[in-house]
Amino acid sequence: MATIVQVARLAGVSTSTVSHVLNDTRNVEPSTRAKVMAAIEETGYRQDAVARAMRRARTDSIGLVISDAGEPAFAEMVHGVEHAAAARGLTLILANSAEDPVREERAVNTLLSRRVDGLIIARCAESSATVSSRLEPEAPRPVVLLDRVFDNSPHDQVGADNRDSMRRLVEHLQAAGHRRFLLVAGDQRVPTLVERFRGFRDAIPDADLPQQVVVDAVDIAEVRQAVATALQQQRASCVIAASTPLAVAALECLRDAGLATPDQIAFAAFDGFSHSDLFRPTITTVRQPAFEMGAAAVSLLIDRLAAPDASPRTLRLNQTLELRESTENYEPRAS
Amino acid sequence: MATIVQVARLAGVSTSTVSHVLNDTRNVEPSTRAKVMAAIEETGYRQDAVARAMRRARTDSIGLVISDAGEPAFAEMVHGVEHAAAARGLTLILANSAEDPVREERAVNTLLSRRVDGLIIARCAESSATVSSRLEPEAPRPVVLLDRVFDNSPHDQVGADNRDSMRRLVEHLQAAGHRRFLLVAGDQRVPTLVERFRGFRDAIPDADLPQQVVVDAVDIAEVRQAVATALQQQRASCVIAASTPLAVAALECLRDAGLATPDQIAFAAFDGFSHSDLFRPTITTVRQPAFEMGAAAVSLLIDRLAAPDASPRTLRLNQTLELRESTENYEPRAS
DNA sequence: ACCGGCCACGAAAACGATTGATTGGAGAGC
DNA sequence: GCTCTCCAATCAATCGTTTTCGTGGCCGGT
């Protein structure tokens, strides 16, 4: 590849002039500019982003650490981040922590060493301390937390209105006559799942609480075990799964127990399944605006770069409650 | 951030010694090494990947240009690439062309300007010429083509055994009694879809060909239109969709036409839907090993970096035919 | 005692751009 | 005609590493 020196030589000017033409960073005589452009054309010169980053403060790149690249909701967030970043001329460096704090920390280190202008992180369940301590004392690289939102975070954050949405979902189900729920709440070290659990509690009168079954197992096999046991006791009229993997486990249990949805038991899930409308039963879903969350994270990051000292913001995007047949036609029985 | 100079000063050695300690690139006295390590610890020094890349020939990063980040199959490939790259200490720069040749070219340029060690590209439908010409004359950055595989490509490639799989699928359906198919073949500028179409032709006796309906419309609305029309003519006993978006369109048409699967019409799809087993009808699917394809692309890239002059390889991973109820219980009617 | 070789380390030149300081010349004002 | 200003363009320092050459000291062999 040609370098700026060769371009300058060919155009008969200095490298600084070429640089200024390239970056439009000070006036240059039209005739010189033309010569430079011609030389660029002829040599097939392309700016070297590495050398450029070396000299300047910024790299025009951002890092994204995702906690589970295999999960469709996160894939959508990646998509949203990529889209918003590209639209602003930022390149995206992607890393996956696979819910492993060690890999997460390694990823953050790698990204920092590559001098990304900022970081977007969907934290894994157990990472809080490590990553924070790694982030704070360093050169102040802005960080935006994605999806997994923490109280009193020093960082900007974007999440969903999990608590409200869960409350609305449960209230809807209650209005349809449901009183006894099986909530598959999932790993309570994950803020998202904690919020959804809280929303559930918000909607349940204290007196009814004892009737509810909550599964907060971490390992998916344990979840399946617990759900199966709970179903045998035949107490719930409605199952709520707080995430897609949990919904998968729950649906498998329902299938294995021979319980049909919605005729024998109602079912609702957060995040849900793609193309849910094409298959039966169609599942009542609280859908996360995953793409938009990713895009919003980039916006927050840009804002932060422009105003490093503004106080941190937490953005909550609305989820949509999509009612489908898995929660229809419930006939409350006298209990 | 501390630099290598500060570390050297603190340790009372030269920067070259620090560098050699860091990279284990020549013998250093255990005592000096210890001093250096201590200084690194104390300053919290972290190697600067940008400066490092500046000096060395490699950047330890690879670029991935994906043609449709929104599609789950491609998201899985991204996941596979990320996984394999991280395992080898490579960082991944991600770009999405969204099936737009202009964006694709821009992405390739950006990645080259960042001096990625190599590129993995899932080409978009119309890009052939542009990107090729951009890639060839440059500094020889290895390129691996992913999913969309081209004949006589000068690059390494990894795809799926589309033609074989389609032939096997059709043969299976024929064995079950189907003779008249509606193939939703999709955009024939996409090599993957061309291969699937060829596999279909392979399996159909010439005499039967006139009975088959093939929809190769590009725009998804046109596809839907064409499928709807074809269904009204009531000729096919089985619909085959050559990709997930096409399957979505086809299933919507079936639903709108009030045709139940599999009772009134059989259905099979390539790539398919996640968690297909949980919902009805369960769909007979030819599943792409998307994750593995991504990982394989990284392997090819690594091999290529090690042996730049080896002749280009094309890898074809096997797809699996997953038989489900959408193609069961067909009762051939006398026609 | 001298020479050669080895070993641990250091000095300094890249890598390819950006950018603050500086120069040279043209034009304006008196 | 002289100075002052302004503008375009150049010079040279700089970013933080890696790596090529050297250098000096020590040891062993003759």
Automatic annotation (TrEMBL), chains A, B:
<dbReference type="Pfam" id="PF00356">
    <property type="entry name" value="LacI"/>
</dbReference>
<feature type="domain" description="HTH lacI-type">
    <location>
        <begin position="2"/>
        <end position="56"/>
    </location>
</feature>
<dbReference type="InterPro" id="IPR028082">
    <property type="entry name" value="Peripla_BP_I"/>
</dbReference>
<keyword id="KW-0804">Transcription</keyword>
<dbReference type="InterPro" id="IPR010982">
    <property type="entry name" value="Lambda_DNA-bd_dom_sf"/>
</dbReference>
<dbReference type="GO" id="GO:0003700">
    <property type="term" value="F:DNA-binding transcription factor activity"/>
</dbReference>
<keyword id="KW-0238">DNA-binding</keyword>
<dbReference type="Pfam" id="PF13377">
    <property type="entry name" value="Peripla_BP_3"/>
</dbReference>
<dbReference type="InterPro" id="IPR046335">
    <property type="entry name" value="LacI/GalR-like_sensor"/>
</dbReference>
<keyword id="KW-0678">Repressor</keyword>
<keyword id="KW-0805">Transcription regulation</keyword>
<dbReference type="InterPro" id="IPR000843">
    <property type="entry name" value="HTH_LacI"/>
</dbReference>
<dbReference type="GO" id="GO:0000976">
    <property type="term" value="F:transcription cis-regulatory region binding"/>
</dbReference>
<protein>
    <submittedName>
        <fullName>LacI family transcriptional regulator</fullName>
    </submittedName>
</protein>
